């Protein structure tokens, strides 16, 4: 197995991108990544594309071939990965495997979602496809409703409060204000969150990540040749993925995401690190409760202790551990298929020291954490600056 | 890179499976493959699932996690691959790469589609997502219409006749009569085909593959340990994939599928074979013209010569080369995501000598060919009996 590095990254602005369709978004992020990597289209050998529900949002399946076509990757293998909201992270991992195996040298991985052409009802219905259609959604629960069940149980078992959940949103929107690619550039107070409209009790609209358009891309290469392309390769030192039951009712507990525990443990073991070594962390905060679960399930806090720590400011920028410096799904936006790749872009920028106003001082090791559905898929990557 | 073998296969009956949903179909094929491979669920290390449009057909994305859940693959990585009608073949290739790389030993690959819950208009619209939504489908052409353009141009350039195209359907329905898993068990004459309803001129309903439910699965392992599980491992000696422009209008020619030419050449080179060495061949006959293109693009016939050869009976069972012994997409059915895996199941059965009434005598080398859309993806595998 070969060592794998990220040698280039690209991102579009996330948000309501009325002027751009799926193909324009992909091209924008992909071309930026190629330029950043000093790689020409013709040299890319395989491409992976992560998209969740392009079929339902805009009628377009077969998105990886479109991605290859748009970026001028003539006739190379193109593979779409769909693992709900973890489509991007899963695509990154397949790209990592393609390089690690020795089969391919230059690999492009993109993630994209064009969501705002759908009505909000259509979008919510499409996103419900991430959960168990037969056993959950068709019974009437919405996707936010699944996370609301998890939040309510977490409050019951651990005394987690709505104020603590709101503190996740406040922090992530603060960080988003420092990120020009973020969908929102507006600060919120705890009281703003708590007074926003209820979506699925106890989750309010400002506890939920938004509907977004956007794309993200990375270029991967073997570490041994990475310096040919960039002075600052980012070494992927751990890559792991796990699954769980699609439906919540089949799980022993709904106050943890078991797939995250397994994936994080595996990735940290590969990377030979413990949670204490991590300086910067992008976690899957599709809802505020999800960030609390992630911080516990990856071992940064004991179960039931993350919410208070976040409320106490331990995860704000340049505090104990800087979490969701990009703004997270909450503030940066959540174009579903793009999210897992955007996390890798953000960690790359942080480890390169190129994160500007939101730079984490002395960031050496970063982690990305991307969840599909209510936790049936979880993907964790560990990255390190390579000097 | 390690050698990879198929150690077990499973299939459901294809057709209108009113009594079974997506999860039941996956479980049926997957459990059959595990039993055939003498492998227990708990020993499978990663699973790939190919599905094209489960989101649009039944509202369910995130299908690989569901597949893992249904088959008791507790907490392993589960990855859905979507490459339109080549989703199955693409998933097989990712599974192949996972074993070849040395990262995983026991890999399950499944393909599934549950199509008959949709109305025929919904199904046709969803299948249109395989082509270029913005530049083709939204302009009013249907997916059969794209192949009709290719057929009409092939007729114009090479004198291909509707009778010759019909002979593909006659042959494949004949083969399907010998396959208990096939959707149709009815023989047709040339005149039946030519008198059937026009779908997109010159293609008639009996030139088109049907709407089907079904699933297929294979278990992969390193060749070096394959004999622990089965006396008849099937060695995958070539695995290749290529892409092309999503839309027909961007191509130099529409009388060939360039992605097939590239993928076949690459796979045959890896396998160190020429087309003359192939005894049994499953090709992507989504429409009758597609089988003619495939036979030319893979080098079995010169451009413009396949149609007459098929009409002359050179590709019927146990003739010069036995093509689509399963019945093909045309006669066996085309549950989109399952098709590429079903092709591998059929070739495995043929190379094992277990194809019953439709056994190709002395089959040593087999090929599968799976196309996405109107040719933006093509996947070719070469397989050999391992003694």
CATH-defined superfamily of the largest domain in chain A: Thiolase/Chalcone synthase
* First-last Cα distance of chain A: 21 Å
Beta strand % of chain A: 15-25%
The SS-based structural class of chain A is alpha/beta
What CATH architecture of the largest domain in chain A do you see? 3-Layer(aba) Sandwich
Name the helicity range of chain A: 25-40%
Oligomeric description of these chains:
homodimer
Number of domains of chain A: 2
Main attributes of the structure:
Peroxisomal Thiolase, Chain A, domain 1; two-stranded antiparallel sheet; 37% helix; alpha/beta; 387 residues; homodimer
Outline the structure in words:
- Two copies of one chain form a homodimer.
- The first copy, chain A, is of the alpha/beta class and 387 residues long.
- The first copy, chain A, has two domains: 132 residues, 3-Layer(aba) Sandwich (Peroxisomal Thiolase, Chain A, domain 1), CATH 3.40.47; 230 residues, 3-Layer(aba) Sandwich (Peroxisomal Thiolase, Chain A, domain 1).
- In chain A, 37% of the residues lie in helices and 19% in strands.
- The longest helix of chain A is centred in the C-terminal third of the chain and has 17 residues.
- Chain A is globular.
- Chains A and B meet through α2, α3, β3, α4 and α5 of A and α2, α3, β3, α4 and α5 of B.
- β3 of chain A pairs antiparallel with β3 of chain B.
């Amino acid at each position: 197995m070969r060592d794998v590095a990220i040698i280039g990254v690209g991102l579009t602005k996330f948000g309501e991108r009325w002027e751009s369709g799926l193909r324009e978004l992909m091209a924008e992020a992909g071309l930026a990544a190629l330029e950043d990597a000093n790689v020409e289209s013709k040299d890319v050998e395989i491409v992976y594309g992560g998209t969740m529900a392009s079929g339902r949002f805009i009628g377009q399946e077969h998105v990886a071939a479109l991605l290859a076509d748009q970026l001028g990757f003539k006739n190379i293998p193109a593979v779409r990965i769909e693992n709900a909201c973890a489509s991007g992270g899963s695509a990154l991992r397949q790209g990592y495997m393609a390089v690690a195996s020795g089969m391919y040298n230059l690999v492009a991985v993109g993630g994209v979602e064009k969501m705002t052409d759908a009505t909000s009802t259509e979008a919510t219905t499409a996103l419900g496809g991430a959960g168990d259609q037969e056993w959950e959604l068709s019974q009437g629960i919405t996707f936010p409703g699944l996370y609301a069940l998890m939040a309510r149980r977490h409050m019951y078992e651990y005394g987690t409060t709505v104020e603590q959940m709101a503190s996740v949103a406040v922090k992530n929107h603060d960080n988003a204000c420092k990120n020009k690619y973020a969908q929102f550039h507006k600060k919120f107070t705890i009281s703003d969150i708590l007074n926003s409209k209820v979506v699925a009790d106890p989750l309010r609209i400002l506890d939920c990540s938004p509907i977004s358009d956007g794309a993200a891309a990375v270029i991967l290469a073997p570490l041994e040749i990475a310096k040919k392309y960039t002075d600052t390769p980012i070494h992927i030192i751990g890559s792991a993925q796990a699954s769980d039951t699609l439906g919540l009712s089949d799980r022993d507990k709904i106050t943890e995401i078991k797939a995250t525990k397994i994936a994080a443990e595996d990735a940290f073991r590969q990377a030979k690190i413990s949670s204490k070594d991590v300086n910067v962390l992008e976690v899957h905060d599709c809802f505020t409760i999800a960030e609390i679960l992630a911080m516990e399930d990856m071992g940064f806090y004991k179960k039931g202790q993350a919410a208070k720590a976040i409320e106490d400011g331990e995860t704000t920028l340049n505090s104990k551990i800087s979490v969701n410096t990009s703004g997270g799904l909450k503030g940066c936006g959540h174009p579903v298929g793009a999210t897992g790749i955007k996390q890798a872009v953000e960690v790359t920028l942080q480890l390169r020291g190129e994160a500007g106003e939101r730079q984490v001082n002395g960031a050496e090791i970063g982690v990305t954490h991307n969840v599909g559905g209510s936790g049936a898929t979880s993907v964790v990557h560990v990255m390190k600056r390579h000097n």
